[in-house]
Structure formats: C-alpha cells, structure tokens
From TrEMBL:
Superkingdom of origin organism: Bacteria
Pfam families membership: Ala_racemase_C, Ala_racemase_N
Positions where N6-(pyridoxal phosphate)lysine occurs in the chain: 31
Protein name: Alanine racemase
Described function: Catalyzes the interconversion of L-alanine and D-alanine. May also act on other amino acids.
GO molecular function, one term: alanine racemase activity
UniProt keyword terms in alphabetical order: Isomerase, Pyridoxal phosphate
UniProt-listed Enzyme Commission number(s): 5.1.1.1
PROSITE patterns: ALANINE_RACEMASE (PS00395)
Binding locations of substrate: 122, 285
Cofactor entry: pyridoxal 5'-phosphate
Record flagged with keyword rRNA-binding: no
Gene name of the encoded protein: alr
Pathway listed: Amino-acid biosynthesis; D-alanine biosynthesis; D-alanine from L-alanine: step 1/1
Amino acid sequence: MGLQIDIAAIVANWKALAARAPGARAAAVVKADGYGLGASRIVPALYQAGARDFFVALAKEGRAIRPHLPDDATINVLSGHMPGADLDGLVPVLNSAEQFFRDRAIRPGARFAIQLDSGMNRLGMEAAEWAAIRAEVLDAGPDFIMSHLACADEPDHPANATQLAAFRAMTDGCNVPLSLAATGGILLGPEYHFDLVRPGVGLYGGMPFADAQQVVRLSLPVIQTRPVAPDEFVGYGATWTATAPRRIATVAAGYADGILRALSSSGASLYADGIACPIVGRVSMDLVTADVTELRTVPDHLDLICVEQPIDMLADHAGTIGYEILTALRQRYERVYL
Ligand SMILES: *Cc1c(COP(=O)(O)O)cnc(C)c1O
C-alpha cells in the first residue's frame, strides 16, 4: 500500500513511445527524481530495456543516478554548465554562448551538447547568438543539438510547425544528431522525431500519451470513520456541511504529501474498489476527509490515484497538470516498487 510504482509499466511505456519513433534513438527524461517516482529505481530498468540516453535538469540529479548506470549510459544535464558545477561523468546541454565558452575553458575536449531556442524563449541559444559561434561549436564536436517544443500537447497549435521550421533553419547543414521531441513531439509525427527523442511524462503514465499504462497507484490508510448528522460540518473553515446523515472517513495524508489543497471539495474522490467517495471539506496538512456513506464496508485503505482516477483526472480537479500531481508526491509515503 502507500505509493505503488509499477516499474514494468514505465518500461512498457518507454518501449511503446520508442516504437512511435522507429527512426530515432529513444532517451528517457528522469529529471526531478524521475518525475518524483524515484530515478535510482527507474534508470536501471530502462537501461536493461535498452535506453542509453538519460536527461536530468541539474548536475546534482545526474550525480545521483550516475552510480545506478553503467559507463556506456549518457546522462545529459539540461541546465548546462552552471558556474561551479561538478559535471564529472555527465554531459551538459549548453544553452548559451556564455555556457559554451565556460565549458570549453574548464572541460576542453569533454563531451557536450547544445540547446537552441526555436521559439519557446526559455532555454537555448537564439538564432543570432548561434549564428555567431556556430562554426566554433561544430568544430568542437557536440554530441547532438536539441530544442524544445512549447505546445506539443496541442497537435493543431501553429507554434509546432513554426518551431519545427526554426529548428530546421538553425541546424541546416550541421551534420550532427538532432533532437526536438519530448512525449508530445513524438505523437506529432515523424517530421518531429529527428535522431533522438526525449520522452518524460509519457513514461510515467501521463498525458498527452493517452495509451500509456498506468504507473502510479496511491492508497491511503483510513485512520477512523464517523457518522455526521445533518447540519454538522467537516474540516477547516467549515466549508462543507452535511445535508443528510453521512459517514465520513479520515485518511492519513494531506497537502504536506502533495495532495494539493486545491482538491478540497473539488469533485475528486477517494476510491474503494472502484466506488467513488467524494473528498469533502478542506484537505489538511496530513489528513483528507471523504464521504464513504455509499460503501457497505469501509476498507483499510482508500485510493486517491487509481485506474478510476488517474493522475490527469486528478489534475483536472485541482486545476493543474499530471506533471505537477506526480512531482508533488513527496517522500513521506511508504513506497512499493512493482
Ligand atoms: C521535461 C523535458 C522533456 C520531457 O518532456 P515530457 O513532456 O515530460 O515528455 C524533454 N525535453 C526537455 C528539454 C524537457 O525540459
């Protein structure tokens, strides 16, 4: 019980996404500790399935997984070469001319990659900055050149084609492996795949990979149940009041565990064998209350994330995205890896 993480499902999702981009190598994005699910448990399984390219956000994250991967696995660091970074055994994805020159001065001859900005205006070299140092960068032999799509989860968004054209224009004639697609970009089709694809959220069962296998189940222990009479309220702020006799269960997890407070009386439920028990009243730091009146017997545990309520449905109730639901799940849960 607790937080169940199905490693075999992550591997199956990686294989399924790799199969959608048959001409490209499939990397695995494991930043933020594998989207909160435990990168040190995930990367050996993906390596065994054939993954050799991994992406993290920070050098610190790369160092944390380096001991869990053989030497022929590459760990790319998306934040690039920050001042003072220890990049031993890692490959920085250099985002600016400043990072490039810093990196060459400190790590001459060491492996690196390049990120270009194709329109998102978040990370990567702008066209003019790139044009000015392109010859010198290519001479130094980058592993690959990448960019990132801002709207890949919306296939009809015009920014996709605009960014694709910008990336093509900036990399024309480079003769270096190219990478543009994350999960959403893989699903946009072959013109977005280039040489290396970088799926993240789809590995963990999140949208936009609608065919993903479910990876996470979150089962919360019931501490106690009580009858609540009409006109009695439940929880902080007395925001929910019973209009009829109800039975309320209190489970042991709350917003300190990443159960977003926005889920208070949001339409989200705890589930008992597929039966929905609506969350009523406010989510507290360590507790959630749900209306279990419809259950004949209340089980020891109620599920917040399950087949009936996957991460993206929960995200809709909270007004956020599956990525935030996953990365908010913190360390306090008992974790079970399947
Ligand atoms: C997070 C990230 C990815 C993975 O994105 P998903 O949408 O989770 O598949 C790929 N590339 C970059 C640059 C990222 O920041």
